[in-house]
Structure formats: structure tokens, C-alpha cells
Amino acid sequence: MEAEYSHTQFGTLMFAVFLATGGLISVVALKIIAEGRLATAILITYIYHLGLALFYSFTIEISEGELNFWFGISVIRKSYSLSEIHSAREVVNPWYYFWGVKSIPGG
Predict the structure, then answer these.
(1) The pTM is what?
(2) What tens digit of pLDDT does each residue of 1-47 get?
(3) CB atoms within 10 A of CB 61
(4) Are 44 and 24 in contact (CB under 8 A)?
């Protein structure tokens, strides 16, 4: 199945935040390992890497009458039939809308 349209947006800000957080997690994990709690350190680093893999990018694709989109390694994904889509329009959102649904008027 070849896509008629495909675009992947790399989350540069998200990756930078995860990278900075990764440095902090590494320091904490090393201290936890020094205390003899290896399983806890492994769990913390596993959760960190899972978050990074799930959200490092966003891909949207149109193929064979479907609109598909997913984050990262595509565990979180959604599809819509093109016949379900009645209209579309371009929107420009302020930068602060990424802070959450509760801060978006009408959201």
C-alpha cells in the first residue's frame, strides 16, 4: 500500500526536552544503582525510552481512501475514512496552545 501523501514532522522541541531530561535521568539512575536498586533504575530508564519512542515524531498519511496518523513508533495511531471527512481548513494556533487542552478556548 503506497501512500498518496505522507509527511513526518520530527518533534525538535520534544526531542530537546527529552534529551535534557535524559541527562537528569542518567544522573538519578546512577545514584539509584549506587544504592543497590538496579531494578528501579532499569524501570526508570525503560519508561524514559518508551516515552521518547512514542512521541519523537508525528506522521500523517493519505492512502487508499483513508487518512492515517500516528506518533513515534505508531503504537498511538488513528485512521479515518476519507468519506467521513466533510470539510477541512487551515488553522494557525498560538505557540502556547501546546500546554494542554484545558488552556485552549473551546477545547
Answers:
(1) 0.70
(2) 688 999 999 878 878 888 899 999 999 999 999 999 999 999 999 99
(3) 17
(4) no
